[in-house]
Amino acid sequence: MKKEWDTIELLRHARHDWLNKIQLIKGNLSLNKMDRVKEIIDEIVIETRQESILSNLNIPQFAALLLTYNWESHSIHLEYEIIGEPNLSSSHLVKDDVLTNWTNTFLEELDQAIKAFHENHLSVTIERQETGIGFFFDFRGIITNIEHIERFLQQQSIVVKTVHELSEHELSIEVFMPYQ
Question: Among candidates 4, 20, 124, 117, which has minimal Cα distance to 68?
């Protein structure tokens, strides 16, 4: 079940993330590692731009899910990237609740089917297309229950999806949400 964040909790987590980044910069400055400081700042700029683009895709529930996912205790580390032009008009909307519910359920099912306390990584690539938005979910880690994932993917017919790979160490799914 997805946690509902109140304003204070959101601010606390955001402040914690920023303090970690500042500490990383300060530490590298004290070690006189200027090249690393520049890299960290460049990474922060890229991450902040991606957060901004995600926040402006007119899918606020889905954006909130991705933005807060790593704040909770999961066996998966999630990252995302938006590629292509993100400018969406009001006529270019997808069903945010359907997308968010499917993604949340997928993350819960995947979390149950993997080896806990292992390096499990999920990358979500989001690409605006002519008739909808494509979402590419690429998991790397250890899947201990492939049958569980197969059952989930077979049951889910609300979204258009293509499974590109499903093995003990990889899961690649493409999901397409047409504009309403």
Answer: 4
Low-confidence ranges of the chain (pLDDT < 70): 1-2, 85-92, 156-158, 160
pLDDT at position 141: 96
pTM over 0.70: yes
Confirm if 72 and 108 have CB atoms less than 8 A apart: no
Q: Residue 134, Cα to own-chain centre: how many angstroms?
A: 13
> Is the Cα dihedral 36, 12, 138, 86 positive or negative?
negative
pLDDT of residue 70: 92
Tokens of 60: 């606020």
Q: What is the DSSP letter of 70?
A: G
Residue bearing tokens 């069903």: 95
Rounded distance between C-alpha atoms, residue 109 and residue 76, angstroms: 11
Tokens read off for 25: 């910069």
For tokens 């970690």, what's the residue? Answer: 20
Measured distance CA(158)–CA(21) in Å, rounded: 39
Q: By CB neighbour count within 10 A (0-12 exposed, 13-18 middle, 19+ buried), where does 99 fall?
A: buried
